[in-house]
Amino acid sequence: MSEDKKNRIVIITGAGIGIGHATAKAFGALGDHVVVTDILEKEGRETAQAIAAAGGSAEFRRYDVRSREAADALVADVEARHGRIDVIVANAGIAHRTPLAELTDEKWDLTFDIDLKGIFRLVRAAAPGMRARRSGSVVALSSIMGVAYGWDEHVHYSAAKSGVVGLVRALAVELARDGVRVNGVAPGYIRTAQLLSEENSLGPVAAEKAAEFIPMGRLGTPEDIADVIAFLASKEARYMTGQVLVVDGGLLVGRY
Ligand SMILES: NC(=O)c1ccc[n+]([C@@H]2O[C@H](COP(=O)([O-])OP(=O)(O)OC[C@H]3O[C@@H](n4cnc5c(N)ncnc54)[C@H](O)[C@@H]3O)[C@@H](O)[C@H]2O)c1
């Protein structure tokens, strides 16, 4: 079955909360089967239950994007039970505030392992099946901190999210002739646990202040991002590949 049909098989990483959670619900509402994955088991199960309660189809699989073995096993298991994987939303990510003077190799590696290599591992595992079926769509999460802004005390995060842009482009070109599309989304300031973390991001007060500088006058919602991810995975985006769409309420093109 191709990506334009209903009842696609969709794997979403980091889908227990935030943007991943909203994206899982969006695909569930479209009639797709959603494989909700996360290291947060309770939240992941609740996401799958919420989709089912709304009349959709979903399952939860515990999956840590840092493991190659887990990526290979997840893909093998989903393909064995469902016959295919139509869509991957590589959403799992961390943003840990760390001043340069404290940015150890270990902290750098952890962010890269999750935010960049985590995407690569899952796509590498799923690509052979997608290529064989000549159908598939991947959507990866970058950030405005990767495509335009530099983020102080988040050098590792900005670097990893810039890396997502290169990853998307190269995968898109390598997989295009086999019918597999790869795109990305670069969110602006989205109201999630990540953004509202005082320790690692803006925190609630600075987030509200940032909203004043956003031309559309508000922070984004997880659903604002989920709908664009769903578009990129849909047949309406069939001639798009290798692109990273900025979804930020006009922040980057605004003047302040
Ligand atoms: N919120 C924003 O303003 C914003 C802006 C730009 C980009 N993003 C990106 O969007 C994505 C989602 O962000 P969010 O705001 O919903 O974050 P969030 O912190 O609310 O959720 C992140 C999810 O990733 C999961 N995760 C973390 N490490 C994992 C691992 N090793 N394996 C599997 N899952 C793991 C978490 O458990 C959680 O479910 C991230 O990649 C983030 O960097 C967010």
Automatic annotation (TrEMBL):
GO biological process: monocarboxylic acid metabolic process
InterPro entries referenced in this protein's UniProt entry, alphabetically: NAD(P)-bd_dom_sf (IPR036291), Sc_DH/Rdtase_CS (IPR020904), SDR (IPR050259), SDR_fam (IPR002347)
Pfam families named in the record: adh_short_C2 (PF13561)
Family: Belongs to the short-chain dehydrogenases/reductases (SDR) family.
Name of this chain's protein: Oxidoreductase
